[in-house]
Design goal:
This protein is mainly α and about 80 residues long. It has four helices and no strands. It has one domain. Helix 1 packs antiparallel against helix 3. About 5% of the residues are buried.
Length: about 80
């Protein structure tokens, strides 16, 4: 079981992260590095019945929100400068 946690929680996400470097810019791929500890902890919780703190759910939500916001394409709108004459 511990081998599954290592492979599914660490090796697979790192391989996906490395593969995504060929498709996306580094600035976007770097955000996926935040998901590796989340997946490792989640697999340990599921497969090994490891105890996690109550704040684990909140931290997952914050990490996923950060990755989602980082990958969102926000329109760049610049308001024209108002001159006082």
């Amino acid at each position: 079981m511990q081998l599954f946690c290592i492979v599914l929680g660490g090796v697979v996400p790192f391989a996906l992260w490395t593969q995504s470097l060929t498709r996306w810019p580094v600035s976007r791929v770097a955000l996926f590095g935040n998901l590796i500890p989340v997946s490792t902890t989640a697999w340990a919780w599921i497969l090994l019945n490891e105890t996690v703190s109550p704040s684990f759910g909140l931290s997952i939500c914050l990490v996923l929100s950060g990755v989602f916001l980082g990958h969102s394409d926000w329109p760049l709108t610049a308001s024209p400068a108002k001159s006082k004459n």
